[in-house]
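Hi everyone,

Forwarding the result from last night's run.
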Amino acid sequence: MADNETGEQAHYTTEQVQFVKVEYTGFATVTFQTNTGACVTTWGNGTSMVTQADGSSVMTKPDNSRLQIDKKGKLLFISISDFL
Protein backbone atom coordinates (compact mmCIF):
# COMPACT_ATOMS: atom_id res chain seq x y z
CA MET A 1 0.00 0.00 0.00
CA ALA A 2 1.48 3.38 -0.98
CA ASP A 3 1.77 6.26 1.48
CA ASN A 4 -0.53 9.09 0.35
CA GLU A 5 2.00 11.86 1.08
CA THR A 6 5.24 10.45 -0.34
CA GLY A 7 4.01 7.78 -2.76
CA GLU A 8 6.50 5.36 -1.20
CA GLN A 9 5.56 1.92 -0.02
CA ALA A 10 4.32 2.10 3.57
CA HIS A 11 5.60 -0.48 6.09
CA TYR A 12 3.45 -1.54 9.02
CA THR A 13 4.15 -3.74 12.01
CA THR A 14 1.80 -5.34 14.48
CA GLU A 15 2.65 -5.79 18.14
CA GLN A 16 0.64 -7.50 20.84
CA VAL A 17 0.79 -5.72 24.19
CA GLN A 18 -0.51 -7.01 27.49
CA PHE A 19 -2.17 -4.67 29.98
CA VAL A 20 -3.17 -5.28 33.58
CA LYS A 21 -6.02 -3.09 34.84
CA VAL A 22 -6.96 -2.78 38.50
CA GLU A 23 -10.36 -1.26 39.32
CA TYR A 24 -12.25 -0.93 42.57
CA THR A 25 -15.28 1.25 43.23
CA GLY A 26 -14.35 4.51 44.94
CA PHE A 27 -10.65 4.31 44.03
CA ALA A 28 -8.53 5.34 41.06
CA THR A 29 -8.15 2.90 38.17
CA VAL A 30 -4.58 1.77 37.52
CA THR A 31 -3.49 0.26 34.19
CA PHE A 32 -0.04 -1.30 33.76
CA GLN A 33 1.56 -1.87 30.35
CA THR A 34 3.63 -4.98 30.96
CA ASN A 35 6.12 -4.63 28.10
CA THR A 36 7.27 -1.08 28.98
CA GLY A 37 6.58 -0.87 32.71
CA ALA A 38 4.45 2.24 32.18
CA CYS A 39 1.47 2.86 34.43
CA VAL A 40 -1.63 5.02 33.90
CA THR A 41 -3.68 6.10 36.93
CA THR A 42 -7.12 7.59 36.23
CA TRP A 43 -9.25 9.29 38.88
CA GLY A 44 -13.02 9.74 38.78
CA ASN A 45 -12.75 13.48 38.14
CA GLY A 46 -10.96 12.86 34.81
CA THR A 47 -7.43 13.52 36.06
CA SER A 48 -4.88 11.01 34.79
CA MET A 49 -1.23 10.38 35.48
CA VAL A 50 1.14 8.46 33.22
CA THR A 51 4.27 7.17 34.96
CA GLN A 52 7.12 5.63 32.98
CA ALA A 53 9.50 2.94 34.22
CA ASP A 54 12.28 5.55 34.53
CA GLY A 55 10.21 7.48 37.11
CA SER A 56 9.11 10.35 34.87
CA SER A 57 5.43 11.29 35.10
CA VAL A 58 2.85 13.51 33.44
CA MET A 59 -0.37 14.40 35.26
CA THR A 60 -3.15 15.84 33.10
CA LYS A 61 -6.27 17.48 34.55
CA PRO A 62 -9.63 17.64 32.76
CA ASP A 63 -8.93 21.25 31.70
CA ASN A 64 -5.77 19.94 29.93
CA SER A 65 -3.36 21.64 32.33
CA ARG A 66 -0.36 19.40 32.98
CA LEU A 67 2.28 18.74 35.59
CA GLN A 68 5.38 17.05 34.18
CA ILE A 69 8.05 15.48 36.38
CA ASP A 70 11.20 14.20 34.70
CA LYS A 71 13.30 11.31 36.01
CA LYS A 72 15.60 13.76 37.85
CA GLY A 73 12.65 15.37 39.66
CA LYS A 74 12.46 18.58 37.60
CA LEU A 75 8.90 19.93 37.56
CA LEU A 76 7.10 21.78 34.77
CA PHE A 77 3.52 23.04 35.12
CA ILE A 78 1.59 24.04 32.01
CA SER A 79 -1.72 25.74 32.70
CA ILE A 80 -4.58 26.00 30.25
CA SER A 81 -4.16 29.80 30.26
CA ASP A 82 -0.72 29.28 28.63
CA PHE A 83 -2.58 28.17 25.50
CA LEU A 84 -5.18 30.96 25.36
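The longest strand covers residues 29-33.

Cheers,
N.
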